[in-house]
Amino acid sequence: MINYALKCDQDHRFESWFQSADAFDKLKSAGMVSCAVCGSTHVDKAIMSPRVSQNTKAPARMDRPLSQPASPAEQALAELKAHVEKNSDYVGRDFVKEARAMHEGSAPERAIHGEARPEEARKLIEDGVPVAPLPFRPNRKSN
């Protein structure tokens, strides 16, 4: 495992663990590495210094578990994500169709979140459908 310091095109800085350097490169080229703050997929490695353990007999330890947010911004993002997932329906790739149907009155209004390609989202906005991007990627539900 390797821990990289990363930054996005909006200059947000964060860290993430990867199986290997090759794994980072493959995930980045597939657009699967995104900013922990804004969700941008334009992410690069930031300059970082190596972590050196004072105790040569024991590996360097983390100050926090990986499951805990590293900053107040990450904490706020985690809380927002939990709120959205609890209070809206995940419609996946049907987001555009569902949002348009609710806007046109052919489906009952409800809070939804899902996925849309950038050009689809722009078209919804141009057509007056009230949508907004989320600053995180949704958890895809498989069943």
Number of discrete domains: 2
Task: Report the mean per-residue pLDDT as an integer.
Answer: 84
Along the chain, the helix and strand elements come as: EEHEHEHEH
Radius of gyration: 19 Å
Sheet having the most strands: 3 strands, antiparallel
Shape: elongated
Tally of DSSP helical segments:
4
What does the oligomeric state look like here? single chain
Structural class by SSE content: alpha+beta
Q: Strand share of the residues?
A: 15-25%
How do the strands line up in the largest sheet? 2-1-3
C-alpha end-to-end distance: 30 Å
- Contiguous uncertain segments of 5+ residues: none
Descriptive account of the structure:
The strands form 2 sheets. Strands 2-1-3 form a 3-stranded antiparallel sheet. It has 143 residues and is of the alpha+beta class. Helices cover 31% and strands 16% of the residues. The chain folds into 2 domains: 1-45, no CATH class; 72-143, no CATH class. The chain has 4 helices and 5 strands.
Q: In summary, what is this structure?
A:
By secondary structure, the chain is α+β, with helices and mostly antiparallel strands.
Topology (SSEs and partners):
Layout: E1 2-8, E2 13-18, H1 21-29, E3 43-45, H2 72-87, E4 89-92, H3 95-104, E5 112-114, H4 118-126
Parallel strand pairs: 4-5
Antiparallel strand pairs: 1-2, 1-3
Summarize this structure as a short list of keywords or feature phrases.
elongated; two-stranded parallel sheet; alpha+beta; 4 helices; three-stranded antiparallel beta sheet; 2 domains; 143 residues; 16% strand; single chain
